[in-house]
Amino acid sequence: MDHFHYRDRALYCEGVAVEDLATEYGTPLYVYSQATMLHHLRQIQTAFADAQPLICYSLKTNGNIHIGRLMAEHGAGFDVTSGGELYRALASGGSGDKIVFAGVGKTDDEIRKALEVGIRFFNVESEEELANIAAIARQHGRKAQVALRVNPDLPPKTHVKTDTSVKGVKFGLDIETVVEVAGQYVNHPHVEIVGLHMHLGSPILSTDPYRQGSAKAVDLIKKLRHQGHTITYLNMGGGFGIHYRKQEALPAAAFAEVLVPAAKQSGCQLVLEPGRFIVGNAGILVSRVLYTKSTGGKRYVIQDAAMNDLIRPTLYESFHRIWPVRPAPGFPTPPSDYEADIPNAVRCDVVGPVCESGDFLARDRCLPPLRRGDLLATFSAGAYGMSMSSNYNGRPRAAEVLIDGRRHRLIRRRETYEDLVRPEREVPT
Ligand code: LLP
Q: Which of 42, 202, 239, 265 is the most buried (most CB within 10 A)?
């Protein structure tokens, strides 16, 4: 469910015409629907209510502090993966005791800061990291709470670049080694192992990996308790898929059906780190057609959003629905199937201005005829869109606007050329 719809043949986000937003804020432009993100957060809160979970919104998905603030106001904590994201979580009004911190390469400074603000726990990814956290906690007279991140060694379940629970990836501890590592920290003065963490990969369109992963976790928790650890948290990470193409994703309730019983069986509080599920379908990227051309027997639509704005299509071969904000007369609003042949449509590549052949938002896509100046919407761009954007090719980052009913407000201004060079100017000469 989302709040993007066509009315009188033009695209609206909630009560606001996307054409008006493009005129006011320019393009490329990220447009987010507050109702959509809150709806998805609520879906998770409701589906998992029985387990009284700690829901930590995964800030890497979309770190805008105004979105973060909405999450915090509606009861979410934060999953962070760097000192920068910890900073964003706090700037969003997050409180330390609802923050969890993952990542294979936490620096001493990051660990220190996290201890200082009293995060709920670290998701620890290696034996050396655990020793380092213990050493830093000792220096500061603290006791660090940690969850051990385990790689449960499951079959492939999503794109190879985002599958984090197959053998041979950098994440977590090998499942066979967890008990041995934990054995060295029983009654440790500066580290308390309080949980077990798994993030299986992203996006995941089936409950099977969660069933398999949580079964392994429950078994491990028993062993850790037997060693003498007080395990309080079962953190099953994020990964819930969304509708990118059609209605391919599962509702939160399907994942809850698997994870709530596992949490109860483990006697732990469930922790979740959803990102994409909350904001993915709450955002679109709006762009304006610059030119069209035919070359090498192919038709191209060149528009002003590029791989620096949304890198997912070229990085993961991912599919994003694209449709004109106001399609030519006679074309559906929107089509029932974006991958099918559409009568009278033009098959084209939708590309940006960046100097790489890999700069595209879509390939071989059927679109209504487009002309210079037309607006396009790239859907499901709220997750890993802006957060993975860059300044490549000297392109200022897009603006972001948040819609709430009929109200719209800028939540990140468009970058300027001066923004591009400021850190270079601000060095001593
Ligand atoms: N927790 C941990 C430890 C994670 O590494 C991630 C995502 C999440 C939670 C949130 O997962 P989500 O609920 O959003 O699926 N850039 C890729 C996705 C990379 C995911 C990285 N980790 C993409 O655009 O598809």
A: 239
How many angstroms does the Cα of residue 201 sit away from the middle of ligand 1? 7
Q: Do 162 and 201 meet the contact criterion of CB atoms below 8 Å apart?
A: yes
List, for residues 284-296, the tens digit of each pLDDT value.
999 999 999 999 9
Amino acid at 390: S
Cα–Cα separations (whole angstroms), residue 21 to 12, 34, 278: 10, 15, 23
3-state helix, strand, coil in the chain (%, to 5): 35, 25, 40
Which two structure tokens, joined as six digits, stand for 44? 């998770």
Residue 168 has pLDDT above 90, yes or no: no
* pLDDT per residue as tens digits for the range 238-261: 999 999 999 999 999 999 999 999
Say which residues have a Cβ less than 8 Å from residue 306's Cβ, sequence separation at least 6: 28, 351, 352, 353, 354, 359, 393, 395
Chain-centre distance for alpha carbon 35: 18
Q: Is 355 tagged catalytic?
A: yes
Torsion of CA 252, 42, 402, 203, to 10 degrees: -20
Paired strand residues for 54: 271
Please identify, by atom number, the ligand 1 atom nearest to the C-alpha of residue 149: 3
All domains in the chain, ordered by first residue: 4-32+280-424 (2.40.37.10), 34-277 (3.20.20.10)
For 9-23, write each residue's pLDDT tens digit: 999 999 999 999 999
Count of CB atoms situated within 10 Å of the CB of 167? 10
Task: Name, in order, each residue with C-beta under 8 angstroms of 225's C-beta and a sequence gap of 6 or more.
Answer: 231
Q: Please state, in angstroms and rounded to a whole number, the distance separating the CA atoms of residues 306 and 310.
A: 6
Mean pLDDT of the chain: 97
